[in-house]
Write a structure and sequence with these properties.
Rossmann fold, alpha/beta, coiled coil, 16 strands, 6-stranded parallel beta sheet, 4 domains, helicase, binds adenosine-5'-triphosphate, UvrD-like_ATP-bd, disordered N terminus, 10% strand
């Protein structure tokens, strides 16, 4: 490994950095960071002030000075930011073959990889609240059991419903980012600790119980969900029993999005720096904290970051290069801070009023078309949404206009399980399986139907679903043999087995029966067969499954009985009402916000039928064609439809922000400062043009728009451009 001579900069190199980027000349501030001798360099700066670019310069400089790319690691909070930095290395002119060898990853991914090395194997990863919820329920049941055994059982708040479980899981994640261990001090009680943490006693008791379960029976951690790895690694590194486990020894450690760090990720970073005796450079912007839900802890970072380190240089990047003075001034007004533009460009900022969502979608589309008409690249235009479920009207408008769109941070609403499920219902009602193109899509539809009918099927049975998806006859058999048939004890048992296991079980039964017969034990044979007969005929479905089955049968009848020339949306509205999807969503999804999304995406789906005005069969045909068209459009340049979180770190020639209404952005019920940070992130993604879509009624307009003091910013911006520097 290349050691200490690799980064400290000789005076000659300081005067003229050896790495020269392509396409721009670094400012003195950038050069200072690129070539600095200090072991720790920290740069906090505004949006667009070249943080990512300068970190890329620093990396390229290290490589130019002989550090192997493999000895450099970039850590970020979001995967997108890691990708952006890796791309930026190439954009500034570092050879792609070198850039690709630099490890750019998230803190949690890094922690997961490190734990895999330390523990010598993979730990199952649960990637959603839905996947973790059964463990929470089991822990609640265990706590209730233990509590009942006490001489005087305590009154504990324990989550029962999905929404409460979601709240608990969010709280548990916060505790972990703060490195709150489940263990108690000597003589400390659970109630005392809960009190100190300012959380209900039951919540802390459950946190302890769940962590105990996750810890496994002494044979290692039994599962992890998001951010658990960072917490586990931080705990392991800080355990204090002997030397900490070895981490990969990096010579240069780079952190982008520094503001999103928390005590757990900081603990991992400190060890990484210490073990590799690494040089550190980090950059961030406190106004871009939008991940407090995931433990981003500004006060901790402000007060602790680098506090115990020696040889720390805090440097600044004062100019934004992303946009011209008008936008810089609007941002300065919005965040009440100094923002200076280093770009001579007259940014266009337009505010447009809309009457309703459909109108906002049409105006968004008009902006995109105008951008395209002026010869600008579609993929340099982004529509940024506060909430993923606001995409529906816009997706419909883009699709109808033949504009291809790619999504980040959200799922196209056509692929949401509730819409896939409805498409399955339509296909079954019309007996037109071809309306769902391709076996892959049909498989997704079958899986969505399973989910919505609240049926469980062993993962090993996915193969059966795949086969059903390829053959129309089996697709139909799935409807009658699985979805519309009351589940029996035998079905239940079979569902838990793979196809091979089921065959083996049947074979075992036959062998047993024939052996008993050979041995003349007829009574036992009869008993065996009676048991089997009973299992095959005893209905064993939950009330929810029965309700879902009857509702599905009724919805199919409604669609089949619809007059052939009736516009599809009327029959669909009746079917959707019968399916009662909102209530089912509240049961299936852990986060209550999901139930709202379900209602909105179904409404969007029915709305596309309403606008088309055609009968069901033609609507199904249109869906198929629309889907094929979409796939075709995606191969060309596409406009980006994304959430604020996904847009972070990126930049676009044109940015459109629709639905800027009080209650929608800022989103009702969310922390106001964080909402303001989100708006700051979203609006500062623009390079040349920004469109702000606001409601017609002035009283409903998002206060964020007024806070930008646009008229003033644009007038002063123009003046700045006209005045020679
Ligand atoms: N010296 C320079 N001259 C001109 N343009 C520059 C210079 N340095 C960086 N840029 C450009 O400025 C823009 C913003 O840079 P960058 O993305 O690095 O900012 P950032 O601070 O990381 O932004 P954010 O935090 O908002 O994601 C990019 O288009 C980049 O190419």
């Amino acid at each position: 490994m290349i050691r200490s001579s690799s980064l400290p900069t000789p005076d000659s190199a300081r005067a003229s950095p050896r790495f020269q980027p392509k396409g721009f000349i670094p400012t003195d501030e950038q050069t200072e960071i690129q070539t600095n001798n200090a072991r720790h360099v920290i740069a906090m700066a505004n949006a667009g002030a070249a943080k990512t670019t300068t970190l890329a310069l620093r990396i390229a400089e290290s490589i130019t000075r002989g550090v192997a790319p493999e000895h450099i690691v970039v850590l970020t909070f979001s995967a997108e930011a890691a990708r952006v930095l890796q791309r930026r290395l190439i954009e500034i002119g570092l050879e792609a073959r070198l850039a690709r060898r630099v490890r750019c990853t998230t803190f949690d991914e890094f922690a997961r990889d490190s734990l895999r090395d330390i523990e010598g194997g993979d730990t199952p990863f649960l990637d959603s609240f839905e996947a973790v919820a059964p463990h929470v329920r089991a822990a609640v049941a265990e706590l209730q059991r233990l509590n009942a055994l006490r001489a005087t059982p305590r009154e504990l708040w324990l989550p029962e419903h999905n929404a409460q479980i979601a709240d608990f899981l969010k709280l548990a994640r916060q505790l972990k980012t703060q490195l709150v261990r489940p263990t108690l001090e000597e003589d400390e009680t659970i109630a005392e600790r809960a009190d100190a943490l300012d959380i209900p006693e039951g919540a802390f008791a459950l946190y302890r119980q769940l962590e105990k379960e996750r810890d496994g029976d002494g044979d290692g951690c039994s599962w992890r969900s998001g951010f658990d790895a960072t917490y586990d690694l931080a705990c392991l590194l800080g355990a204090g029993e002997g030397p900490p486990p070895a981490l990969p020894k990096y010579r240069v450690v780079i952190v982008d999005e520094l503001q999103d760090m928390n005590p757990a990720s900081y603990a991992c970073l400190e060890q990484l720096l210490a073990q590799g005796q690494a040089f550190f450079t980090g950059a961030g912007d406190f106004d871009q904290v939008i991940h407090r839900w995931a433990g981003a802890d500004v006060s901790f970072i402000r007060s602790h970051f680098g506090a115990g380190w020696r040889n720390v240089k805090r440097l600044t990047l004062t100019m934004t290069f992303r946009h011209g003075p008008a936008m810089a001034l609007a941002t300065a007004a919005f965040k009440a801070k100094a923002v200076v533009s280093g770009r001579d460009h007259a940014a266009q900022i337009a505010v447009e009023r809309y009457v309703d969502d459909a109108d906002a979608a049409q105006r968004t589309l008009a902006r995109v078309l105008d951008w395209q008409r002026r010869g600008r690249r579609l993929d340099d235009c982004a529509i940024i949404l506060r909430s993923a479920d606001e995409s529906i009207a816009i997706e419909n408008a883009l699709l109808e206009a033949g504009i291809g769109c790619r999504v980040e941070g959200l799922e196209p609403y056509f692929l949401r399980p509730e819409v896939l499920m409805l498409r399955g219902v339509i296909a079954f009602a019309l007996e037109d399986y071809e309306s769902i193109p391709g076996a892959g899509k049909r498989l997704q539809v079958l899986q969505a139907l399973e989910l919505w009918q609240e049926l469980s099927w062993a993962t090993s049975r996915v193969e059966d679903l795949k086969i059903a998806a390829t053959q129309p006859e089996l697709f139909d058999a799935f409807l009658h043999g699985r979805l519309l048939k009351a589940q029996t004890l035998a079905d239940q048992a079979a569902a838990a087995l793979s196809a091979d296991e089921e065959e083996e079980a049947a074979h075992r039964l036959l062998s047993l029966a024939s052996r008993l017969r050979r041995e003349g034990r007829e009574a036992e044979v009869r008993l065996l067969l009676t048991q089997q007969h009973r299992a095959a005929h005893t209905v064993a479905e939950t009330p929810a499954q029965q309700y879902a089955r009857l509702r599905l049968a009724r919805a199919l009848e409604i669609l089949r009985d619809a007059p052939a020339d009736e516009p599809a949306h009327l029959a669909l509205e009746r079917a959707v009402k019968t399916l009662d999807l909102k209530q089912v969503a509240q049961r299936i999804f852990i986060d209550p916000a999901n139930a709202e999304v379900v209602v909105r995406s179904i409404a969007g789906f029915v709305d596309s039928a309403r606008r088309l005005g055609k009968p069901l069969r033609e609507f199904a045909q249109w869906l198929r064609e629309a889907e094929e068209k979409l796939a075709e459009l995606r191969k060309r340049k596409t406009v980006l439809l994304c959430t604020v979180e996904a847009a972070k770190g990126q930049e676009f020639g044109a940015v459109i922000l629709p639905f800027l209404e009080e209650g929608r952005f800022p989103l009702a019920g969310c922390d106001r400062t964080e909402e303001s940070n989100r708006f700051y992130v979203a609006s500062t993604r623009m390079r040349d043009e920004l469109t702000l879509l606001v409601p017609d009624a002035a009283a409903r307009v998002s206060p964020f728009v007024a806070a930008m003091k646009l008229e003033q910013a644009m007038a002063r911006g123009r003046l700045q451009l006209e005045t020679p520097r």
